[in-house]
Design brief:
heterotrimer; A alpha/beta; B alpha/beta; C alpha/beta; B: alpha/beta; ten-stranded mixed beta sheet; 11 helices; about 25% helix; C: alpha/beta; eleven-stranded mixed beta sheet; 23 strands
Chain lengths: ~250, ~450, ~475
């Protein structure tokens, strides 16, 4: 299998403070990786750095995605190349309907791929199909992006957009936070339905419960800006039983 | 210019007399102020800041001015009974425009001064010199008028790192047998990290026409905190023209509650300048008007630097033929990024003869700010009234409860519990008409 | 830094695509203003003597006035003697239609305003005005069958003098303000529309204004009368060439709305805004007012203001009839050195009158954008309601956004609400769009259009699309 994402010795800072202190991680096409770790270990920083959030500065290291230097690409080009982040806190955009928002996103991607813009009928059909996938109310689709949405609606809207954009590598940043068990199931099922043989996911989470639905192939523990443990799915159970303290103790300097 | 000429003549003809009892600091400022006053005269009603308040007309009365500092024989105890129960205050008085000690016998922390402005200006001019008239110099012609004629007032000085626990109370009283014009001057200086709360009660029970100008300059040093409560309980025959200037350094806090319970013609100009990062201003006001009362509150919060917060809440209840004017400007200068500023103005008109002029204003030159204002004019909520009635509360009582609740939002911002209770009681009395009973007024029903 | 300036310049020029000058033979009278000039204008237009008197009275009053200074605007001194008050692009002929200069037809085609009826925008009748003269009015005949009069003001003076005389100056008196007096003295052309009782106008009526000649002012005058139970939707568009000098545009629009009638008036104002350094551009000093005289009458103003160097404009509603309604929906966008002081007046006189004000200001570059509005409830206006919302969006830290509402309430049954907020496009919003593959400029356009949507929705379809494009184009280069 070929490497989809290759992170080598990645260091990153925000406001001058180093958060990532040398990450090494390789994701092959088709794999699902879980990144777990206590609060403040750098999980969200990693996902933000991968999609090119301007608040973060990469100070050292390299990231290759589909063999290309990811760090040189603009955030929108990363998106066009199939990198998708389901945000932990999706922002509200008053006055911009989801429909218009998605049309703009889809057509920008198609332009990047040198395809004709999608016609309205086709687009609306696609909206309908993808909406059904995550049980997104058609009324929500006419509302402004995330404006006045509940926590569950926001996350469902994220997965709906993921369905629309058909990413190659999707990063789910704490997608389970703030969800009750039913919402969690709907969101997770949506993610699973979207899984294809050649697509990969990075599932970032604090808890085991999301991983009950989305089965990871490989599990990493991120602590203090480094990946300190990598193992198979059995690590999830171990963490659930023993908590993060033993990891912390093992890594005391 | 005829009205102002009269006062310019008085000033010029009596300059020696005016200056004679006064400190050099006051005298120096007054001649410069006269030049400015001559240039502009009293503001006309065509001026944007004076659209609804004809102030020149208020000066038409043939007032006497006590420029020769003739001793007025007063016994404050017979004049004044507005003590706030359970509130231990350091008291001082300004009778007409002269400082009187409060004889409260309370001890201030070391270095705190609460004294006659003129006396301190004589004794230690270097203490006051960096402050006196430095803000009012930029004021409008009423501030200049006050600087021309002011001969005394109060200075409150709190040195560095000093906390004055008990509220300082300044009571201003008007007493004379003729129509009288007086000019008070207050100077409040809080040095770094000091704290105080100041209550200024404005009283007058005169039947004769009175007019007082008041200029208050407040300097709040780095990290210092001041809560200022101003309460006007004067008479229908009184004109109050007040100009309050506040300058705040970094991380300072200023709280202001400006309550007009009874008055004649009032104009309060409040300008707060936020000059250091992290400064915070909370500006509140409540007006209860009836008869021909005219209350004009004009506020400007000038965000000169970034990361400052300002919060403003002004409420008016207007009955009979009373007039309310509210103009609140939030000025956010180009350097004032990260400003958070909010202004709310709510007004209740109880009769169709009551007039409300509201002018909330935003003037914004920085982009990374959160600013908003809201202003409403309306009546009590019919649904709420009906709901209360349905539960057995009589309509009049329900109205009263809603009005009280409306006013209560401002009172609740007062931090001193005893004062808050006292004001709740005063507002309640005022709304029930027990403070100034009258038969026709909806407030008193 | 220098590179950025160049980009700005490029964009400022690119953004204004209507900046071309047409080579059309134009009859321009000498610059300067005096009673003889007014007599000359009146003579050229073959006006009746009462109208000349009207002009002269206004002129004499204007001489006593000074330019208003209360707006939040920095207006350079204007030399009223350096302006020509009349420019006619038509060849001298009585049968105007047959003599339209092909260049002139081309000009309007380039502007997207075909003057041939077969090419018309769907359902719209157009009165095209260049400089001081109405060039052509389309679909006149069709409208005439319904009894609707839609023609140029000059023509109305000739054909329907009694109607013009009955209504002209009754909504905006020449004494109203400095620019109203000037316009009343020298107004050239404009549109006249009369919708008779009970008629719903089947087409959108539209006037397209174009300043072409140099050193001329445009002083058009529009009068719309909607008689009882009638309805009309009226659109107004404007452009001007790019010139280094400033051009003065001082128009008056008067609208009379009778019992149960409804008028919708929409403007997309795209006068030349000046270049990126603030040179040139149109001074747009306009008095627009509607008088809701009739019971249950309704007047709705919608404006999208993206052009002009300086805008001074307050489309207003006098809510005289009981139950009458006034609406004001506005998007005002300023970029570079543009200045706008715009808003509305809602004067509640009748009982149970209602008004709504939605204003969306967008400031970019070094521009200053002010909302100024008055809501007055008079003593007898029982049951008046007003809701105002004035939002400002700032793009960049060199511009200003200001809100100056005035509320004068003299009736205790009024319910008046005003809200205003200020915001900027957050980095988070932009990044969110970037992550989804939408570039920054496009994202800004998207967000700004979303912000203005409430107002754009009020425009007729073709105009709304035009306005959306205009908003995006006017903002190009606003955020680096």
């Amino acid at each position: 299998m070929e490497n989809l994402l290759e992170i080598k010795n990645l260091h990153a800072t925000i406001d001058g403070k180093e958060i990532l202190k040398g990450i090494d991680l390789t994701v092959k096409a088709g794999e699902v990786h879980a990144i777990m770790g206590p609060n403040g270990s750098g999980k969200s920083t990693l996902s933000n750095v991968l999609v090119g959030h301007p608040a973060y500065t990469v100070t050292e290291g390299e990231v290759y995605y589909k063999g290309k230097n990811l760090l040189e690409m603009s955030p929108e080009d990363r998106s066009h190349e199939g990198l998708f982040l389901s945000f932990q806190y999706p922002v509200e955009i008053p006055g911009v309907s989801i429909t218009n928002f998605m049309r703009a996103a889809i057509n920008a991607k198609r332009q990047y791929l040198e395809l004709e813009p999608m016609n309205a009928t086709e687009f609306l059909k696609m909206m309908r199909e993808k909406r059904a996938l995550v049980n997104l109310d058609s009324k929500l689709a006419n509302r402004s992006v995330n404006e006045g949405f509940s926590g569950g609606e926001k996350k469902r809207n994220e997965i709906f957009q993921m369905a629309m954009l058909e990413p190659t590598l999707s990063i789910l940043d704490e997608t389970d936070s703030g969800l009750d068990i039913d919402a969690l199931r709907i969101v997770a099922e949506g993610v699973n339905k979207l899984k294809r043989e050649d697509t990969s996911s990075l599932v970032i989470t604090h808890y085991q419960r999301l991983l009950d639905y989305i089965k990871p192939d490989i599990v990493h523990v991120l602590y203090n800006g480094k990946i300190v443990k990598t193992a198979g799915p059995e690590l999830v159970m171990e963490l659930e039983e023993r908590g993060y303290d033993w990891i912390k103790n093992e890594n005391k300097q | 210019m005829s009205q102002e000429q009269e006062y310019i003549d008085i000033f010029e003809q009596n300059l020696a007399l005016i200056k004679e009892p006064c400190a050099e600091l006051l005298n120096e400022a007054r001649e410069k102020a006269a030049i400015r006053f001559k240039a502009t005269g009293f503001p006309g009603t065509k001026e944007e800041n004076w659209l609804h308040s004809n102030v020149a007309k208020r000066f038409a009365t043939d007032y006497g001015m006590n420029l020769g500092r003739v001793e007025v024989n007063t016994d404050r105890r017979t004049l004044f009974t507005c003590d706030v129960p359970n509130l231990n205050t350091h008291q001082a008085f300004i009778v007409n425009d002269t400082f009187r000690d409060g004889e409260s016998g309370k001890k201030f922390p070391d270095g705190v001064i609460l004294a006659s402005l003129n006396r301190i200006a004589e004794e230690s001019p270097s203490l006051l010199e960096p402050y006196y008239n430095t803000l009012a110099e930029q004021g409008d012609s009423i501030a200049q008028f006050n600087t021309m004629f002011a001969q005394d007032g109060i200075v409150l000085y709190i040195p560095k790192n000093t906390v004055v626990e008990e509220t300082v109370q300044i009571v201003t009283l008007l007493q004379a047998n003729v129509e009288m014009l007086s000019n008070r001057r207050l100077l409040v200086i809080l040095e770094e990290n000091s704290q105080a709360s100041l209550l200024i009660c404005d009283h007058s029970a005169m039947e004769k026409q009175t007019l007082s100008t008041q200029v208050t300059e407040i300097f709040i040093g780095r990290g210092a905190q001041l809560d200022l409560y101003e309460l006007e309980e004067t008479a229908y025959s009184n004109t109050r023209l007040s100009h309050l200037f506040v300058r705040q350094e970094a991380d300072s806090r200023f709280g202001h509650s400006n309550i007009t319970l009874t008055n004649g013609f009032t104009r309060n100009y409040i300008s707060v300048s936020l000059e250091g990062k992290g400064a915070e201003a909370d500006i509140n006001g409540l007006v209860i008007g009836d008869k021909n009362q005219h209350t004009d509150n004009r506020t400007i919060v000038d965000h000169k630097t970034g990361n400052c917060n300002s919060n403003e809440l002004y409420k008016y209840i207007l009955d009979e033929q009373s007039t309310g004017v509210f103009a609140g400007k939030m000025l956010i200068r180009p350097d004032a990024q990260q400003t958070v500023s909010q202004q709310t103005n709510r007004n209740l008109c109880l009769t169709s003869d009551a007039h409300m002029y509201a002018q909330p204003q935003l003037e914004i030159y920085a982009d990374d700010v959160k600013c908003s204002h809201g202003s409403t004019v309306g009546q009590l909520d019919d649904n709420a009234l009906f709901y209360m009635q349905q539960r057995g509360i009589p309509a009049d009582e329900a109205r009263h409860l809603l009005m009280y609740a409306f006013a209560g939002e401002v009172i609740e911002n007062i931090k001193i519990e005893a004062l808050r209770d006292r004001l709740h009681m005063l507002v309640e009395k005022r709304l029930r008409g027990e403070l100034n009973h009258c038969r026709t007024c909806a407030l008193c029903k | 830094m220098k590179k950025k300036d160049n980009i700005l310049k490029k964009i400022a020029n690119k953004a204004y695509e209507f900046g071309f000058v047409s080579k059309i033979k134009t009859d321009i009278i000498d610059s300067g203003l005096n009673e003889d000039v007014i007599r000359l204008i009146s003579k050229k237009k073959n006006e009746p003597s009462w109208l000349l008197e009207f002009r002269l009275e206004a002129y004499r009053h204007w001489l006593t006035l000074k330019m208003p200074t209360w707006a939040h605007l920095n207006i350079p001194p204007i030399d009223y003697q350096a302006i020509s008050y009349y420019a006619d692009p038509l060849k001298k002929s009585k049968e105007k239609n047959k003599e339209i200069d092909p260049e002139l037809m081309k000009t309007f085609e380039k502007l997207g305003i075909p003057l041939e009826e077969r090419l018309a925008l769907s359902g719209t009748a157009v009165d095209a005005v260049m400089d001081s003269v109405s060039v052509k009015t389309t679909f006149k005949e069709e409208l005439k069958e319904k009894g609707i009069i839609f023609c140029s003001m000059s023509e109305a003076v000739q054909e329907h003098p009694e109607l013009v005389r009955q209504y002209l100056g009754t909504v905006v008196n020449y004494r109203d303000n400095f620019f109203a007096a000037l316009n009343s003295a020298v107004f050239s052309d404009g549109s006249f529309a009369f919708i008779p009782k009970g008629v719903r106008c089947p087409r959108e009526l539209s006037t397209y204004f174009r300043i072409n000649a140099a050193n001329t002012g445009q002083f058009e005058r529009t009068l719309i009368v909607a008689d009882d139970d009638s309805y009309v939707s009226y659109l107004e568009g404007c452009t001007a060439p790019m010139r280094d000098e400033n051009q003065l545009h001082a128009a008056i629009v008067e609208i009379v709305v009778n019992n149960n009638a409804e008028v919708k008036y929409s403007t997309v104002q795209n006068w030349y805004p000046g270049d990126a350094e603030g040179k040139g551009g149109v001074y747009n000093f306009v008095t627009k007012r509607g008088d809701c005289r009739g019971k249950n009458s309704k007047l709705s103003w919608t404006q999208v203001e993206t052009g002009s160097a300086i805008t001074w404009k307050y489309p207003s509603c006098i809510l005289r009839g009981d139950n009458s309604q006034g609406e004001f929906y506005s998007v005002a966008l300023t970029n570079n050195y543009q200045q706008a002081d715009t808003g509305t007046k809602m004067i509640h006189l009748g009982k149970n009158t209602r008004s709504t004000i939605i204003s969306k200001g967008i400031s970019a570059g070094k521009s200053q954008n002010s909302y100024r509005g008055l809501v007055r409830v008079s003593k007898n206006a029982d049951g008046a309601r007003n809701y105002s919302q004035c939002d400002s969006l700032l793009l960049g830290d060199k511009c200003g956004a200001h809100t100056f509402p005035y509320m004068d309430i003299h009736n205790n049954s009024a319910v008046i609400e005003h809200e205003a907020t200020t915001s900027k496009i957050s980095e988070d919003q932009l990044f969110y769009c970037n992550q989804r593959g939408i570039g920054t400029e496009e994202a800004i356009g998207l967000i700004v259009n979303g912000y203005a949507k409430e107002v754009l929705n009020k425009l007729p379809m073709e105009f709304a699309i035009e306005a959306q494009k205009l908003l995006s184009v006017s903002l190009e280069g606003a955020v680096g």
